[in-house]
Fold each of these.
Amino acid sequence: MNQIQLRELESKCIQEEYPFCSAACPIHVDVRAFMASLAKGDTRGARRVLDRTMPFPEILGRICDQPCRSQCKRVEIDAPLAIGRLEQFCVGATNTVIKLPKLPSKGGKFAILGAGLSGMTAALDLSRKGRPATIFTSSASPGGSLQQLEESILPGKVFAHAQEMLAHYGVEIQTSINMNQENITALVHEYDAVYCDLDDLDQSLLPFAPNTVDAITLATDQAGCFAGGGKTAEGSFSPVYQAEQGRRAALSIERFIQNVSMTAQREKEGACATRMYTSIEGIAPTAEITPGDEPAGYTAEEAKNEAGRCIQCECLECVKQCVYLQEYKEYPKPWIRKIFNSQTIVQGTRAANKMINACSLCGQCSVICPNDFPVAEVCRSSRVDLVETGHMPPSPHEFALEDMEFSLSDYCALVRHQPGTTRSSYVFYPGCQLSGSNPEAVKQTYAFLRDTLGGGVGLLLGCCGIPAHWAGRDQLFAETMEAFTKDVERLGNPTVITACTSCLSVFKEFVPNMNTVSLWNILDKVDLPTQTTKPARALTLHDPCTTREQSELRASVRSLCEKLKIEVVEHDFTGETTDCCGYGGLMQYANRKLGEKAVARKAERSELDGLAYCAMCRDNLAAHGRPVAHLLDYLFATTEDDPLSRTNPGYSRRHENRARLKSDLLANLWQEETIERPAHTAIKIQLNAEVEQLLNNRLILLEDLQKVIHHAENSGSYLLNPNNGHRLAKYRPIRVTYWVKYEPIEEGFLVHNGYSHRMILPEDQK
Amino acid sequence: MSQFSFVEATDWQCAACNQPLEATKVQVTYLKSAFHVELMTCPKCGFTLIPEDLAVGKMLEVEQLLEDK
Ligand code: SF4
Ligand code: SF4
Ligand code: SF4
Ligand SMILES: [Zn+2]
């Protein structure tokens, strides 16, 4: 990622855009913050918001013509917020809370001709910036046409207050000046720049051609002479427009004096468009609160309630759904900057590594985001970058990659034509997770496919390589894909039937020319097995995150449920917006706790027990404690027990199941023997459920325990506790040292505990 | 971690050498870093004991820090 790509991506996230009210406000008052304070009853806090942006809150707060109001999002629900009225309440109930700082003088001298609100604003802004300004007016006091307003609307004291404020910043005010042609010309010559306030100047005396005022810069045909205020383009008098004009003029004058571009990046000055997106789903309409006593305006209570109607417009649509973004307390704009900073760091801690590796790459955010912000893509390419630059930490993905290696090893992988045949029209590809989770389902499905589909149905056991893809190991992934493609070629390019939606998504993306089809699609087209069962109660359906873009597949699953007469109740986050179960992107390995939160979110989308059709979703949901069945359980009655009560097999059993599935199938269908597994796998191990769970969480497999005990018992090298006869042994097969506390029992060993570390002990250092 | 001592009384003994463990200064390494720490080891064969709380506590913490360097 370079700076330009960073900017481009940042701009996709519109969370930091103005809310609708502030965008429509010509001086961009932070209405949202103003409302938040008022809603808390913090009127001074609300005044602070006004003081920060409004040039003269005592004036503008009383008479603003609130062009923001019609743009308030709440208009789409019931009625817009009474923004102007609430400002009146606020300035009526408070005095100035903060005075903005005055910068040290930067020199120059500036004349403001006319003392209307725009002239006063220009003078105020200039002097705050350290540019000494003098106001000249023919009137006896400043205020321009505002002075004609009634005392009940704009009390006279506000002008005195404005004068005090101007004096505070060092603005000089010269009143009752004879503003004739001669004097004006002299002023234009004498000062470094002048601003003509059209609200308080005789139009016939202007020192420039009136139709030459530039709408963006307020410059005129007379260099150094700016003009603004007066009537709007629509011909009306708008107080907030006056303020905006004065502010714009001050900015122009500053640019003019500094001799920089007069026009660059001024799009957001004045009322502007906003790309903000705010969902109003589920917000109940409430009537606008109007003052009980109209002329007196809001009471404190009424103001608080009206401000409480503000929905605090923002986006955060992705964050609302994603546990990962919630965990890291970020929305994508600052999130991506963190990743960029971490990636470009030369020395020191790569602070975003954990964050980069924790996303499930599920793509939900991109579907939800109004601009399709590609969080998953950024994460995955950042992982590739970490791998390629040698900065990928070993621990987040190693376990999953070794698991994948095992699935692809001779102990588990298999490529065969249907027994007794030499060609295949189809090949069944159950995938590593279904083979690990439910080998019985694989056997029965394969038998059914053999019986139902003609032309030979081969079998391919392995792993599609998605863990490598998720881990950013592009080379390993490419090699895996290539080996898989060769296997399919050797079978004569049959149609590949995948049971796993992740496998299918990978094949579709990376070998688009291969004939692939989802098992669900096939099953939906043939006569179903005769021995199907169905749950006694309605279930909710959990789509796996890798079906986000596979609508046809999702439809097949629903059609199958209907044929099986399973009563399915859909929840709100299925299909395109479905959640990840925590396995996606290897989230649960990189951050186990977060993986648990992810599956909890998925489970809690519905009160009902679940039906899954991804083995990983099923097992993670089961581990979370939710009764959940796999669709194959009902199609093939794979278990005597209620499919809803099957527990999560855990990593160890998956590992063993895969190896056993191959040896069983080879023996039963092809009458062949599998290659023998290493001697340590013969060791018999017992452990209670609690230890099993602990070891599962610590990513320690049964086979790791066997390796350690095998090593200890053969070498005699272990520690012994003479008090109870327990043994403590360690072994480092490759990059992790495993420790096992155990005791010999009649048949094998009883394991009490296990843990691991990656640090290398002196005896293992070479 | 480099100055730390993780020495504590233990019931574990080296089975092969039939020896109680003793506090020893050893060097453990990870990625490109080395640390000198005091641990319980067998004085004869050098078998190093890493107790569970050290492995899943401080040691893990340091490993994670080093992985992000
Ligand atoms: S959905 Fe998320 S990424 Fe998209 S604009 Fe909103 S906050 Fe930003
Ligand atoms: S609801 Fe609140 S934040 Fe949204 S546009 Fe209206 S005033 Fe602004
Ligand atoms: S976990 Fe899914 S929804 Fe959340 S950021 Fe990653 S890809 Fe987006
Ligand atoms: Zn010893």
Amino acid sequence: MNTPLRAAFRAGLAGSLIALHLALVGMVEAFNKREIIQDTVTLGQLLLLGVSIGTALYALQLIPQERRATRDGWLTALVSVSVVSLTLMLLSLAIQTINLRFMFQNASKELVRILTFHTPGVVGLVKLWLFILVGGILGVGYLFVPRPWNRVLSIAAGATLIMGVMRSIVTPLLPDLLVDALYTASGLKRIGAVVLFVLWSAILYTYPRWKARAQTLQTLEVRLGPRTIPLPVFLGIVVLFALPAILREEGSYLFEVLDMVGIYIIMGFGLNIVVGYAGLLDLGYVAFFAIGAYTMAVLSTPELPVVREFLTQTIGRSTLNFWEIIPIVIVISLISGVLLGVPVLKTHGDYLAIITLGFGEIIRLLVISDLLKPILGGAQGITGVARPTFFGKFVINESWEYFYLIVITIGIALYISVRLRDSRAGRAMKAIREDEEVAKAMGIDHVAAKLSAFATGAVMAGLAGALFSSRLYSIAPHSFNVLISINVLCLLIVGGMGSLPGVVVGALALVGLPEVLREFAEFRLLVYGAALIIMMLYKPEGLWPERARVSPIAKEVFGDRLQQLKIE
Amino acid sequence: MAYFEVRDLHVYYGAIHALKGISLRVEEGEIVTLIGANGAGKTTTLRAISGLVRPRSGQILFEGEDLLRYKPHEIVTQKRVIHVPEGRRVFARMTVEENLYMGAFTRTDRDKVEEDLERVYQLFPRLKERRRQLAGTLSGGEQQMLAIGRGLMAAPRLLLMDEPSMGLAPILVESIFETIQEINKQGTTILLVEQNAHMALQIAHRGYVLRTGEIVLHDTAENLRANEMVQKTYLGMA
Ligand SMILES: Nc1ncnc2c1ncn2[C@@H]1O[C@H](COP(=O)(O)OP(=O)(O)OP(=O)(O)O)[C@@H](O)[C@H]1O
Ligand SMILES: [Mg+2]
């Protein structure tokens, strides 16, 4: 273990590097445009505050546990964050005296103004130091506030800030009166922040008391025909289906985001079967998404004379409708899953990853190519993709309407995933993931298991693609790049490989959050990288792992509550 | 007709001639051991029998029928020739019990499977204590027990074991060999590959000595133990 000063400097150095990085890639400046609490704190400042709190917590981790809640703890935390603020002060001075912009484009005067709270001279630097110091005080203060208040207050603060950051998602859910009282155009009013903070604190403080009641709620069941389902699940489903219709006006942005998240969840379930269950690292998964999307587009658009001609001659109509194409999408993606599977049956690990990566690229190049332009639309893509209709009258147009379709598809994909997981085929896949040769020696038909994994995964991606292209009404080849495969893989890793709730959590975190935090868009890959590294270091099993296992840290923080977590 | 017989088996890995025409025979109810130095081709022999490598020529006859016609999983499902691979290869992210059930993956006789599970737990009480533990977190010795137990769960008519004693403490080696003998007494025919010739020849009925892809000697275990060449080379006696 380290002495307090050594720990402080180590953590301070790490924190400094991160803070410098965030400032110089332009994140601080970009995030600063958004005020989270009116006239109080911006998203950019929160970012720096987060770094500061993180630095203090990391420094405290480095000293022996029994010394944390003593003077040593204060010393460690405050010195470590002071190192961070010193670095930022030096950065400000450097930017003011020499021009760094030839190297760091974002080392602007504006950055200095943000860092020093628009105050010139020494006073500004002191303000910066005090601000960063707040993070250190919050970090170490956690140890001195008695339980359960430390948890209650910190979670309440977090929840309040999140409600500020996610303004665009939260406000449609609230009545207008409340929105006007609590929110500004970009974030929370001061009064709103206070109200929410107090409210959250109260809820969290009383939580243990009404938790018991909530638990009896969980044991209640609703009878649906021959089966019963738990009441909370039933209520969840009711809300999921009632909400879009209620919020359709105000919530259109919300459902645009949720539709995208949903499409990624469907793909996540599919890739989870390939990578999570069968352990086949597929980096070309976007291919099946593209195949589904293009099948839907090509067969339904009024463009593409060659295809129209062909369809008129074979079936007597020039286009097919959404519902007719869906089974075709299923069949075509199933076949292409098998087609990819056969040549890679004997490859493993890195080789498999590279070959599948190539497969994804081939599909993209085919779609762009001039040769296939009459059939696939070439670089401009295709517009006029069919929208689903019911009884020839009711047309699905809006994102909230698509949401129903997507939720139903998610339900089907989930059902298949669960059934597969608990079936013989699922166990065969898992055995192959663990050790292919031994699996063979146990009598498992590895060809059948691998091909069915590829095929099932491909069908799910194909359906996601079909929904995607129909919802967008038009598709362009550049939206089917390798980044989609990477996104889906990342959401599996973040959520927990092989875990079904993990897919949902991962998609919300990696697809939903960046959509909401528009500021992130530019830095998306940077954030992904950071998120993955942090996950690998601190939670390699994912946010919601396949098997609930209680980590020692979680036990310390949450105490006995975790006893109730089911441990398989 | 022999119960199980290998005739003039040749296996190549690319240009490497790993098995140069070996022949051996196992009768029902026997323990036959195949001993030899590192790289002699012992593992290769077992892999060929269970269909994991394709021989260039030769025959592998089980009750007179050539196994070369079958795919690896069919050798398990139809012939119940079961391979316990070398190096404790358990399914790390499955529990002990899931591993054992994976052994019975291809069986349809549910009741007998439960009986066999009890039998495995009797042979290896340690596994019963740890039935809910992830196999990857077992100790080396426990993993070896699990690998053997998983093989037994497949209801083998011929059990191929590849170096079950590898890397185990001497005391555990002794108990593993006792268990193997017990398994044999309960009626399972065993082809045992070992480097620990000393122990293998104690429990086996007969043995074959493999050297660089060729069988150089075969005899009853008793005679092999007395054989001067075997004593010098494999039993480490001067
Ligand atoms: N996949 C492979 N590719 C190429 N050569 C191989 C392969 N597997 C085994 N060999 C070679 O075949 C020969 C026999 O190997 P085998 O594994 O059968 O030996 P072994 O008798 O089991 O040895 P050990 O006691 O060390 O396990 C060795 O020379 C080995 O290098
Ligand atoms: Mg070997």
Amino acid sequence: MTRMHITTCLNGEEIDFLCEPHQSLLHVLRDELKLTGTKEGCGTGDCGACSVILDGRLVNSCLTLAAEVQGRSVETVEGVAGPVSQAGTVGLHPIQQKLLEHAALQCGVCTPGIVMAVKALLDREPDPSEREVRYWLAGNLCRCTGYDKIVRAVLDAAAELRNLPEERQPA
Amino acid sequence: MGEEDGERKFRFVGTRPIRHDGVDKVTGRAQFGADYSLPGMLWGRVLRSPHAHARIVRIDTRAAMAIPGVKAAATSADLPEIEPGPGPANLAHLSRNVLAREKVLYHGHAVAAIAATSEAVAERALLAIEVEYEPLPVVLDLDDAMAPGAAILHEDLKTRGGKDAGPTNVAAITEYDRGDVDAGLAEADVTVRRSYRTQTVHQGYIEPHAALAQTGVDGQSVLWCCTQGAFTVRAYCAALLGLDVSQLKVIPTEIGGGFGGKTTVYQEPLAILLARKAGRPVKMVMNREEVFRATGPGAATHTEIELGARQDGTITAARVRMCFEAGGFPGSPAGAAAMTVLAPYEIPNYAIESLDVVCNKPRTAAYRGPGAPQAAFAIESALDELAEKLSIDPIDLRLRCAAKQGTRTPYGPTFKRIGLIETLEAARDSSHYKAPLGPDQGRGIAVGFWFNAGLNSSAEVHLNEDGTAIVATGNPDLSGSRASLAIMAAEELGIEVHRVRPVVADTDSVGFTDLSGGSRVTFATGQAVIDACRQVVRELRQRAAKIWDCDPDQVDFVDGRCVPAKGSGLSEEPLALAEVARQAGRTGGPINGQAQLTARGAGPSFATHLCDVEVDPETGRIEVLRYTAVQDAGRAIHPGYVEGQMQGGAAQGMGWALNEELVFDTQGVLQNPGFLDYRMPVASDLPMIETVVVEVPNPNHPYGVRGVGETPIVPPLAAVANAVRRAAGVCITRLPISPPRLLAALHDESGGDS
Ligand code: FES
Ligand code: FES
């Protein structure tokens, strides 16, 4: 089978890769590009562990063909934080920081998907209600937490982001 | 009482530091089972049975091996034959579950495995494997399995604890009794008699099973896998493959949930076997469908209960008979269910009987508090009905017979200090319990119990030259246990929590440690960490004595510093731990502590849950409006993760009560092997889950820790069912309470014994 040559913008950097026409973006990210932060929980679009942001929209990378990202922009969990400082957490996005402060992860396998889903939510709705958060995250399964602490962390992160001065807003 | 209980002021215990592995987990750097790969790696795939019950006549892998890119094939012929025998984990059965030998016993049972240069080639090769089956009648469920003339799954199976010698599908009977049940029932003014059923459920961890194996020409193997117990995997793989334990090193990866389902092996030995045959590393990752078809369900059950009480609420007798579906091989938690079912209560007369029954479904694995949720669903539902008949508040009824210090358990031991009454009182006094309810709304309460486990743990504490410390243990971290172990080390060493680095070590790098399960890590491994830290402290005092040229008895260790003991007459300035660590090379060498123990005296854990629901009488839809989980944690080391486990268990239990069910057709084929149709709770299904952590210290742990993980899944099944019963006015005897089932119950004149 001839492989396709795809050029895309991944976490702000121009990259290219070869893929089979049927290969999912998830598999290319994980197996070809070795970006294993994006997880596979089901491969069928039902768990959200593979969530990435494609041209500003939240998608399941297991349901996205790798070839579809030609000329577009992909954000994965690896691109959310800035460099980690010596103190440990300074580079984190407020979403990541709040998830940690609220102990909103146990095993953590759903966390990368949650981070991406929340980022997509807060990018479009800076002041969501609890109900909006719950419905937005309904595509992201978490089996460990019962969602309580995740929802609280998201509301807290939203408040923090709203209060950050313009120049300190994360990219 | 614990040695420091009450008096001791903790500096770090009870605080909420950010977990040490947190940054890795929110940035995607943490490596889970499927995230490892090696150069030259092959991909392994498993061929699974299309029949739920059949004899294997012949397997031929030659055509598959002829496909370019296929490097190895494995069948049960490649595994040493292990004779059936007794033991907690029957290795003959485990071997046959890993690769079917004489028979396939469920749809999806592993039959053969292939390693090839890509997953696609491996998949193609599976299709080329020829297997000849002789189909047998399918034994679908408990009723089928125990019917006269039922097809027999294991010809050699005898009932453990039973009288019949004949061929049977009943693998074991567990019985406990006391007093005279018939006399007790005769004394009762009011009785309740019901039969309850629960369906097969799945642990539903988000990360599928994954393993990567590498073998050298010297026969040494390394295995990376997501497991709750690296030493357990090592023991099973070595036994199943006929290797010395020292020939295998297991490196536990981060683990994306287990809930008991990752306490056994499936493809781990196959990855090693294929790697040995192919001479190249082999990676195997299950897809979600395989996880549902071939791993870990929690058992379906049928329970019959008869309860009697006097008008004043004194329970006079209980008769309980439970049947658990074990799936293809014996080993359901029927025994644990028998032990837990009446443990929260003092009942003068009882008879408990619990059966472990095989049928053609996947072999059950442990699921959080194994057996206890199903048992609690039955007994707590019956108790609630009894309370209603007696017009007694359901919490009051339970308080009247609640187990306490000195109560003898049905399974033998007598409870030491326990906190059941405290959790009931906290629930009764909560704002939730007093809140008003609207129309079509109901409130349910239920109690749950789990023993908690002790078992074997090792720990190593290495004091670094700058006064930071490494704490290495052998327990994979499923829910923040690194943080709780580090907090305990910080408490002992008197250094900040983030100066302690907790490490999950591989099987070559730390002493034997039983798996992360049974709510044992903070209790048992925590004790090993505390012991190891105390050795370090002893050593620190000796080193300070050397520096001061005095007797170690003249040195005390307080808040991370060596200080002259009271009355020692010394006037030296305190020596900080970091200072002693810095001088270690000149005072006797590196300072390390190492401890190992069999932890005894795990503290039984009790919980009381409250649940409010609203039912829609037209559609049967149930909405959970409010939920409160109260639990005795003994001592909450990191309260954030204690609450988190309580909330997570409650959510799993609500799913079990309302939606979750593995649906099999008449041929034993699973109809819903995906998250779309196996409907676990999502964020929009649930309310906030309020938590009340009660702390009745465990007298057998230095800080009073009991362990938290299992108990929270025990009460919710009944808490939800009781709420629905009170909201809808119909008795709930079957889970899940799906809308059609509730509607049918609402329309059933007979009282809804659906
Ligand atoms: S892996 Fe993509 S949604 Fe589950
Ligand atoms: S933290 Fe384990 S699945 Fe969400």
Amino acid sequence: MAHAKEAEIFNRDESKVNWHDKALWFVRNKRDKAGSNVKGWEELRNLASAIKANVLSNLDNYLVQFEENAKKNGVHVHWAANAEEHNKIVHSILSKHKVEKVVKSKSMLTEECHLNPYLEANGIEVVDTDLGERIVQLAKEPPSHIVLPAIHKTKEEVDVLFQEHLNTKPSNGDPQYLTSEARKHLREKFLKADAAITGVNFAVADTGGVVVCTNEGNADMGTHLAKVHIACMGMEKIIPQEKHLGVFLRLLARSATGQLITTYSSHFNKPAPGTEMHIVIVDNGRTKQLSRDDFRASLHCIRCGACMNTCPIYRRSGGHSYKTTIPGPIGSILSPGIDLKKNSSLPFASTLCGSCSDVCPVKINIHEQLYQWRQIITKEVKQPVVKKSVLKITGRVLANSKMYGFMGKSARFMLKHMPRFMIYSKLNAWGKARELPKVKDGNFDEWYKKRQKNE
Amino acid sequence: MVILMSGIKKDKKMSSRDSILKAVKNNKPELLPLPEIDLDVFNEDINLLETFIKSVELVGGRAKVLNSISDLDNEIKALYPNAKQIVSSVKESDFGTVSISKDTDPHSLETIDLAIIQGEFGVAENGAVWISENDFSIRVLPFITNDLILVISKDAICLHLHDAYKLISKRERTFGLFVAGPSKTADIEQCLVIGAHGAVSLTVMVV
Ligand code: SF4
């Protein structure tokens, strides 16, 4: 189903959509505040972007260096060309150790590879231990956001879910109570697990170490209790030197949630005595994206989620409407590279307002890449979706909401919902003025002009 | 030749490692320079201790400044009067009731009420404290304990993470981490709840 249709489904519950929209915008504001308190914030973003550009231009050498150093530290390194191979490797490590129970911390890569169903089909229990991920796992849903996996769920829904699966008492969705029950439930799982799987936030070429960041402590509870730790990483997670972590860790949590840093930034270099550590390096389409001049920079992404939080379409259509592992603006430039036809409506799920590019800590030109994909899709994909899509999506998502009157009901509302070029250049000192790519669609142009006249 | 899902042409005999590296080599752009980090851009003349304390509070922890290390145990007693199972790796504290070694089964630490760990230094910009495996023998300790106390010297506070990475550049690399505040989550309707899977409180004693 095309994004617009999916978005329409999400929009049927108006109060929930409004809450979703507001909650994410709040996170976006926290990000602004956190960034503006850092001296040299823009320089940090420039550095991060330039370091990532260097990484991609020298990726083969960094990968080899990383492997060499990790092996020296007694870590096993595996390579997977695609999702299938990744799953097989993970399963073979688990089989070797006769593992029956696995705890997993957040990893978008293992979502991308559909590792859970694969292991479950092989008789292994996999428990997601990040609270948000556990919630969506119990609900048999994919995460709807890469940092806030259960942002689409109300606390009342979580309450019902926990009553069913964790035998909790009805609490009207008391977050404190529900979290403490989840803590007990997952504590049991940590204590009984034979192996722990984690993602990787950064892999350092010159030390062979990996860094995993969490707020909950779930990655560490898993890895330090189990005998086997498997860390799964996309090949673009490499950074050249350990000191570059200084740049990326300063940016990551601030961009993601407005926190100064995540509670735990764990540096794994050697396995603990008596335990094994494995790292699986995964391609799964990344080398292909690397070959595309216009879209290569999408591999800079450090998965902070800021582009989702700021996107007017994402906020009002929800992560599930994208039908991809990575939703939102970044997902919409990664996914067409994986399956152009299936994901052809996604680059149209944008107003091209550029807010995503403005907040991206590694300065990916997201909205420009969205525009580039549109050009390719219009040429290559023959289907009605292209013709109809452009305004339909913005229309469905934005105009559908009663709140979203084009003439605006109040200045405060407009400030919240208007695309960036109306807000950032004048009112928000944070946003930087930037040339927009030309919006080809007449309706959009017309609408923009009308807006200006009415101001 | 078989074409894999990712679109890499792979020789049947070639390992995935080699075919991935070959594809990267063919597909990567021309070498771009690795930028230098100019620390002057990030330099600030601020009171490190004050900033650190503020940051610790912002990340949900609490900081206590002690005049002398001999006040440590009294302070801990006042804060955690009911703690029974206590591990201390700080030599100035006699408060420990459970001793651990490299051979301790990490699962046995499940019942620990309080861990007192020597931190190496604090970071003013974000309230994080660096601790390394050498400071606590069993890796799971700072996470599995109900409450956590980290002790650092007030002279051991650096401005930002760039300086922090300089301080740990020569360490023996096994396992180490920055801890900033207690474990927390906001996964239920964005409501902040302190105490997810790790320690439910964090106190930094600055001596
Ligand atoms: S594209 Fe940029 S803003 Fe979006 S998740 Fe990735 S790093 Fe964050």
